[in-house]
Amino acid sequence: MTIKINKKLKPHLVFAIFAFMLYGNTLNHSFVLDDAIVLYYNKFTQMGINGIPDILKNDSFYGWELNDDEYLNVEHSENKKGFIAGGRYRPASLVTFALEVEFFGKENVLPNSNKEIRFIGNAFVSHLVNIVLYLFTICLLFLILSRLIPISNDKQWYISFPFITTLLFLFHPIHTEVVANIKGRDEIMALLGSLGSLWFIIRYFDTNKYFYLAFSGICLFLGLLSKENTITFLVIIPVTIHYFISNKKAKLLLSFIPLITASVLFLLIRAYAVGIQDSTHAMSDILNNPFIDSTKNESLATVFYTLLLYVKLLFFPHPLTYDYYPYHIEIVNWSNSIALFSLFFYLGIGIYAIYGLFRKRDMFSYAIWFYLLPLSIVSNLFFTIGVFMGERFVFFSSIGFVLLIGWLIYTYIPKAINNVKLSKYSISTVMFIILCLYAAKTINRNMVWKDNYTLYSTDVKISKNSAKANFFAGCEYYSKAIFTDTFEESQRSYDNCEEATQYFLKALKLLPLYPEAAYQLGSLYFYCKRDVAKSLHYYSIAFQFLSKKIGSFIEGPKQVLDLTPEFLENNGIISTPEEIITSCDELLAVLPNFGEAYYVKGLVYGKYLNNIDLSILNFERSLTLDFQKTTKFYEYVGTAYGMKGNYSKAIMYLQKAIESGTDDYATYINLGVIYRQIGDRSNAELFTSKGNEIKNNNIININDK
Questions:
Q1: Is 629-705 a CATH 1.20.120.450 domain?
Q2: Which of 111, 134, 163, 208 could be joined to 483 by an S-S link, Cβ 3.0–4.6 Å?
Q3: How many Cα atoms within 13 Å fall on the side-chain side of residue 229?
Q4: H/E/C letters for each residue in 538-569?
Q5: What's the whole-model pTM score?
Q6: Strand segments (E) across 81-142
C-alpha cells in the first residue's frame, strides 16, 4: 500500500523529521540556567493557572524575586526587581509555563550550592513544546519565503530557494541556546508572532480582505508579549512589502494601522505592569553593565568588536557558550584592528542596504535589512542590554544570514555550472555538507544543555575569563560536593570541593567586587573544609557590597558562628583561635552589630586564649545586641564572670543557663563552687549534688549504650 503525501505538505514533513532529529536529544534534559527565573523558581508560574493574572500584571522577573529566601542566596541576586534596566515584560511564555505546571507538573528537586530546591514542573513537556514551537516557526518561515520567491513549476521543491533557506535556518547551531534552553521560548514565540504578523499582512495584500489586518495586529501583539524585540518588525514588515509585494503607499499605510495599534497597546500595558523606568536605572555594576568603567570610545569599539563576532559565529558557529560576560570579551579601543574592520564592514553593508532599498531591491540588500534591524535593538549601540552579546540575540537576525547564504547557493551555483542536472547535484552536495556539519554541531551542543552542571562545567572552559562563568561552575561543583547520592559521588566530594574553591577564587580574582563569589567561598570554607577563619573572612568581603540588601544572606555567617562553639569543643575545625578572632573582627568591621561574632570572640578569648578581660568585654557587648542567646551562651558568660571573681553576675548567668534547661553537669558544679566561695553552703551542696547526679547519669547512659 502506497501512502500519497500532498506535495505542499512534503517540505513541512521534512522539517518535522529534521527538527526532532536535531533537538530530540533535549527531551531528556533538565531545567537549566535562567529557567529558574521564569519557571521553577517563579512564584506566579509555580501557581499554575491561578498565577496567570499576576504574570500578566507584573514584571516578568517579579514572581522570581518574591522567592528570595532559599534560591536567591547567590546565583542571580543581582537581577532583583528594579535592578534590570527598563524592566522586563514578557508574560506570554510565562503563561505557557504556568499551564504546563497546572496540567503536566510533577515534583522536582534540584541542588543549588548547599541547598536543594523543590518545585513543580515537567522538563520533558517543556522541551517538547519548545521543539514544536520551533517547528511551527520553521514552517511559517517557509510559507513566507515561498510567497516572496515562489517555487517555479519547472523546479523541484527540495532545491528551491525557500526550502534551502529554511533548512539552513532550521539546522544552524547558533539556535541551540534558544531551543535547548526552556527559557528561550520567549525568543521562539516572539519570532513566531512576528512572522505570523508578516504572513497575514502579505495575505491582506494578496486578497484585499481586511480581517487579515486584524490577524496581523493580533500576531504582532502576541509577539510583543513574548519579547520586546518583536518591535523591530514594525520596520521589517513594510520593508518586506516594499521589496516583494507592492509599492502602493496608501495600502501600505493602511496595513500599518493594526501594527501601530498593537504596539501602542503593548507599550501601555507594559508601562502599567513595570512602570516607566530610566534606562540607566540600577545598572551600577559590571555584571549588569559591562561598559560601566569604559570610555565612550572604548564602549563603541567593543560594541563593534562583538558585532563582528556575531558574523563570525553565523559563518563558523564554534565555539559556542552561554556566557559572554566580563571578561570573556575584553574591552578594546579603536587601535584594535578587528573593531576598526567591523566598523567599516557595518558601514559598508548599511550603505548597500540603503542603496538596495531605494534602487536595486535585491535579495542581498533585503537580507542585510533582515539582519541589521533585529540586531540593532540588542547591539548595545543605543542602550546597554546588560551583557556584551549572546547567541540568542541573533535568533531573529540569523534569518538575514540564511537568506544571504541560501540565495548564493540557489543562484550562483547554477550560474557557475552551466548544466541544469549538474547544478542540481552541486546544490544538493553543498547543502548536504553544510547541513551535516550544522547537524553534528547542533546535536553535540544540545548535549551541553543537559543540566546546570554539564553546561557550567563545559562552558567555563570556553569562557574561562568570565567571572560569572567561573562563579556558576563553582556553584555546581559545590552542589556536587554537598549532595552525593552514590558512593562514587561521595568519593569525589573532596575533588569537587577543590574544583569549586578554585572557580570561586578565580571569579573573585577576575572581579574583586563580586560579593556572590565571596559569599559562596564563605559557605564552602566552613561546610567543606571546616575553616571558620577563612569562612568569616570571605563573608566579610561579601558583606562589604551586600550591606544594603542583607536579607537572608545574613544566615550564612550566622550559621557558621552558631556552630563554631560546638566545633571548637570537638576539635572539628582547622582554624586557630587567633585566626578566628581576626576573622570575627573583619566581619564586625562590616556588620558592627553582629551579636554572634562578639559571642564567639568572648568564648575564644576566655576558653582558648585565657584572656578573661577581653572575654568579658566581648560577652558584655554581645549582651546588648539582639540575637538568639542559647543555654551555652549563658554558661560561657557565667563561667567567665566566675573566673573573674564577679560572683553576682556569674550566679545570674549560670542560673539563666539552668532555667533555659541546660543538661551540662559542669554548669551546676561551677555554680556550686561559686556559692561555696561566697559562703552559701546550702546552695553549694544543692548545685554540686545536682551536677554530680547529672554526671553519673551520663556515665550510666554511655555504659548502657
A1: no
A2: 111
A3: 23
A4: HHHHHHHHHHHHCHHHHHHHHHHHHHHHHHHH
A5: 0.90
A6: 106-112, 115-121
